[in-house]
């Protein structure tokens, strides 16, 4: 699978696998894949030291399209698998990727707790406001009046605000990117990977099949008119008034990273027998 | 107290027999009961520790009401000259430090005419449910004795009384108290005095059978619970990562492992739920670190999708299910072997996996260690079916033999040409690349896949990977560990898990009376092998399957999977009451003479 000579200079191509994605033509996820590989090249990480963990959905297919180690698990549980991996193997760089349904609906509880646990992970959500793999149902980020077969006339539900939830739950780095700007996205991803603790990058990634109107996102997005803040209350005000199209790093905190990690053994397993022996 | 075998009237499980026991007890059963917080569990623990110092074997089962604090509680202790792993048929002595809600334990503390009830008359009358047994009631002013010694506790009076009646010396009882004492010297002095007062009060209970002095112990003995044994076995097997969500009765396993893992260089994560815990251990194991979680039935139900992922992605994990009464929330703090059907067949799709069960409290160590070995060797999930009885009871056991079961995973070396993670090998086991190893990167997948790990819905890929995942389990040589086999005879009793201990004791009683029945206590519940059963059942014409659940789950499973000789019969009943050797001996005798 890995056809790249180990000593060749690393480029984005180093991190791309030979497999052709199953995504529809025009899907935003192609650009996200390209941004991920660019970011890894910017950081010059050995591909075998990077693991891409995902759940289920169109975007969750991404691990096999990289030339890194990959774990394509079950729906909604990617953050849990990645947490176990990173705590047990802190030497690895662990990226977690998936969609809005995977992360905010079925995986919502893990999202909260991954933010508060603050394990050094980078969580990339390719948000297209729709379940694409099951052919067009509303997700937590779908607009309340979006009509579909499963929820005729719309869900009439308030839209989930992942960035606000992430901030309230303790994520240490919060950014929004747009797949239509692969270089800008790569730059944000590189910052997210470098930032200690739990980094959350929401990437607006249009579903041209079920949400063709999202092609217009390119005219709606804009660079966030503010610098990244380390002040959570400022970030909260900023995110609460955000219309969902401000692009950039919106919060970069300095919370202590989750201390869970294997320590040097202090005793041999056999020494534990002493507490049982009479 | 042991009931005689083979009397015409069978002891019903829920109503204790009222017969006198004509045979001398080979063990002594003592219940110390009272309100929660009255210290009866501490008294029971110290009684067991003192007995251990005196060279006896023994067992302590904890039972309590559903309240977190302030409910009723009882320590059920059984002491003997030889190893005991099951509760007896009835209790020789019930010491109640108060009677507030102790009547709720009437079914759990069966008494008979030869039993003695010591209660404090000042704390109310002995409940009718206990008097009805015909047991002798000896009122003693336990509370008054404790009050007369400022700073002392009533449970220490009860300990002295129970200890002296068991035949334990003042020296071992005092030593047990001194060893466990963690408070100030004045308190210790007061409680030693209370202990001695309890010992003195024992003289007012006449004609009570004691066990007599034990022979000096040969070899080292251990005192531990099944949950601790399972945790220690996991570490011996090489587990270095645990993720779990608290659940009764598995929590103590995790609480034991948390500091222990830290000492040996491992980590434990308290997960947000069981969906997270199983996926966390899958992630850690994918990273090359042997991993385990522990739970009970409700948690296992939540984990099943993840266990299926471990099957499909061929990621080794160990899941300990400390079974409790079900379904749903069921009876959280009481034992039942009712997750068996679910454990062996609860995964969606064709999902071959390992299911093992310890056959005693002490065996929780070796079986869990073996489970780690099997999971790692076969790159598959292994479920360990412990239960509340084994998990939360403490027993004095002979030091377990060192076992050699450790995690040994077949891993891929760097830069192997044409590496395929899921290569269809002869054994079914294919080298697993561990992240960090260059030149063999792959994506593990829960989607059906090609040998290279690429998602595939092709019929030939599906058939090939299904065959591979089954073959690796079926071809493995499980050796002698698959079952504990004892005795000979044309009849055999097949059982598993905690039921094995009372069955074993029932068969020993029957053997002493000339009835010989073979025992097959299964440790490996999946995969089953007809060949192993044929060999173990050679010469057997009839089989009885014994288990503690309402649905005869093992019986049905064996009938579906294995050709058994003759007309197989079932002995099964649900929890929460433990299976007792007497009821099993009667059932086996009735069956074997039919």
Query: Helix/strand/pairing class of chain A, anyone?
Result: alpha/beta
Shape verdict of chain A = globular
Major sheet details of chain A: 8 strands, mixed
Kindly state the percentage of residues in helix of chain A: 25-40%
- With strands numbered from the N-terminus, the spatial order across the biggest sheet of chain A is 2-1-3-4-6-5-8-7
Biggest interface and which pair forms it?
A: A-B, 56 and 67 residues
The share of residues in extended strands of chain A comes to 15-25%
Please, could you describe this protein's structure?
The complex is a heterodimer of chains A (278) and B (594). By secondary structure, chain A is an alpha/beta fold. Helices cover 28% and strands 15% of the residues of chain A. Chain A contains eight helices and eight strands; from the N terminus they run αββαβααβαβαβαβαβ. Chain A has helices at residues 29-43, 78-88, 100-106, 108-117, 162-169, 182-194, 217-220, 232-240; strands at 50-54, 69-72, 93-99, 122-127, 173-178, 199-204, 222-223, 246-252. In chain A, strand 7, helix 8 and strand 8 (246-252) form a beta-alpha-beta unit. The termini of chain A are far apart. Chain B has 594 residues and is of the alpha/beta class. Chain B folds into four domains: 27-204, Pyruvate-ferredoxin Oxidoreductase, domain 3; 223-398, Rossmann fold, CATH 3.40.50.970; 410-476, no CATH class; 481-592, Rossmann fold (3-Layer(aba) Sandwich). Helices cover 34% and strands 18% of the residues of chain B. Chain B has helices at residues 40-53, 128-131, 142-147, 154-165, 170-180, 185-201, 226-237, 251-263, 274-286, 297-313, 340-345, 363-378, 388-392, 459-474, 500-512, 530-536, 553-561, 581-592; strands at residues 27-35, 57-64, 72-80, 93-96, 116-119, 136-139, 221-225, 241-244, 267-270, 291-295, 317-323, 354-356, 381-387, 394-398, 443-445, 483-486, 491-496, 518-522, 524-526, 542-547, 569-572. In chain B, the strands form three sheets. Chain B has an eight-stranded mixed beta sheet with strand order 6-5-4-1-3-2-14-7. In chain B, helix 1 (40-53) packs across helix 5 and helix 4 crosses helix 6. Classes of the chains: A alpha/beta (278), B alpha/beta (594). Chains A and B meet through strand 1, strand 2, helix 2 and helix 4 of A and strand 7, helix 7, helix 8, helix 9 and helix 10 of B. Strand 2 of chain A pairs parallel with strand 15 (443-445) of chain B, so a sheet runs across the interface.
